[in-house]
C-alpha cells in the first residue's frame, strides 16, 4: 500500500473503544521512554481491516495531516466535547489557558 493523501474520517461508534484502547497503549508506551509520555497533539494513522482490527502504520508526533488545510475543520468529536466544531489550534489554546488558570502548566510542558 502507498499513502497518497490524507482524509479526515469518522469511525463507527462500535469501534470507538478500540480506537481509545490503541491510543492509550501508545501513550503507555511513550511513558516508558519519557516519564510524562508524549505531550501535545499527535496522530495515529491507521487502517481498519475487514475483521475490524485497527492497525497503526504511522505516527505523527505533531498536528497530523501534513497540511494546514485540515485545521479549519476541527473534528466531529469536538462538536460534542466543546459544543461546536473547533480547530486543533483553538483546542490547544483552550487547554493551555485552563492549565494556567488551574496552575497545571507544568503537566503540559516538558
Short account of what is shown:
By secondary structure, this protein is of the alpha+beta class. It has helices spanning 16-33, 76-82, 88-101, 105-108; strands at 43-48, 54-60.
Compile the SSE list and pairings.
Blueprint: H1 16-33, E1 43-48, E2 54-60, H2 76-82, H3 88-101, H4 105-108
Q: What would you say this structure looks like, in words?
A:
By secondary structure, this protein is of the alpha+beta class. It has 2 domains: 12-66, no CATH class; 67-110, no CATH class. 39% of the residues lie in helices and 12% in strands. It contains 4 helices and 2 strands; from the N terminus they run αββααα. The protein has helices at residues 16-33, 76-82, 88-101, 105-108; strands at residues 43-48, 54-60. A two-stranded antiparallel sheet has the order 1-2. The longest helix is centred in the N-terminal third of the chain and has 18 residues, at 16-33. It starts with 15 loop residues before the first helix and ends with a helix.
Q: Key features?
A:
single chain, 110 residues, alpha+beta, two-stranded antiparallel ribbon, 12% strand
Amino acid at each position: 500500500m502507498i499513502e497518497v493523501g490524507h482524509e479526515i474520517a469518522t469511525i463507527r461508534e462500535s469501534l470507538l473503544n478500540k480506537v481509545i484502547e490503541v491510543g492509550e497503549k501508545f501513550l503507555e508506551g511513550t511513558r516508558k521512554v519519557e516519564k510524562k509520555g508524549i505531550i501535545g497533539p499527535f496522530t495515529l494513522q491507521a487502517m481498519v481491516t475487514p475483521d475490524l482490527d485497527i492497525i497503526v502504520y504511522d505516527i505523527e508526533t505533531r498536528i497530523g495531516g501534513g497540511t494546514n488545510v485540515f485545521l479549519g475543520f476541527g473534528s466531529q468529536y469536538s462538536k460534542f466535547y466543546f459544543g461546536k466544531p473547533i480547530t486543533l489550534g483553538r483546542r490547544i489554546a483552550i487547554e493551555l489557558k485552563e492549565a494556567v488558570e488551574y496552575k497545571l502548566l507544568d503537566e503540559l510542558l516538558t
